[in-house]
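Re: beginner question about structure tokens

> Can someone show what the tokenized structure looks like for a real chain? I only ever see the sequence side.

Sure, here's an example I had lying around. Input first:
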Amino acid sequence: MNPISNVWNHPRTSAAGLLIAAVTIAGVLSQQGVTLGTAGSGTIVTLAGAIATALLGLLARDPSNQAVILSERSESKACPELAEGDLRSNSAAKLGVWALIALLLPLPFVAGCSGTTVAQDIVNWTPALQSAVATVDSTAALLAPQDAPIFTAATVGFDAASNLLVAQAKAYLANPTASVLAQLQTQIVTFQQQVNAALLQAAKIANTTSQQHALACIQGVATIVSAVLALVQSISGKVALARMAAQSTIKLAAVQPYIDNGMAARILANHYAEPVELARMQLAQAEVSEARAGF
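And the corresponding structure tokens:
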């Protein structure tokens, strides 16, 4: 087929190909330290990659569910030989597209161009974090009498830890120095360990209803803390990461059985205004990254 006519006949596919190439090249250039100049707090290369990523996301935006259903019904009528298995293949193909986009898009909570950008993102999590901690504070009253003391003891430090984390993020936003970053690194690991310990304690609650309720509200905090940890991780050097990982004695693998990935994905999707499917895949990538770093 003539390449020129192919581009003309399939403009969306061709545009997607060019955007994928732009994102890939921008990533390679960034890894090699090529900047092509500055743009605000970032670089021209990262700006170009971000624009290409945003355009790719818009280009790949799925039609409404109703439109998809009507389209599939239309295809079924036009081609009677199109069986249910073929329709499932179409759905699988769409999922594959989301997987590709997830691999190409930088994670919103690990893609800060600078320490200032990351600090602002952490501060932006403040309302959600405070709301999640408030939910934890009010949960003990909803548990069985014998379970409430266990839950209260496990989560008693959440208020102080969240307030300190937010204060340090604001301090780093105002004064992005190495010493302030070190304090932020220490605090996020400390808070993460508190949350992980709380999850393990809540898992010991014998009453099934109380246990599920306790785990769910603690996970609301855990999801945000994990997102903030990923943000801090993105601006930390190898030595700092090694120190942070050494302080992390309760690893992600230990609490993973008690994590509801669907709930975590919904929290991220709501915060970053993105599809849940994409948030779920980005969450998986972040978990792999944290595990490799030793958390």
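Each token stands for a local structural state, so reading them left to right follows the chain. The two ends are 51 Å apart (CA to CA).
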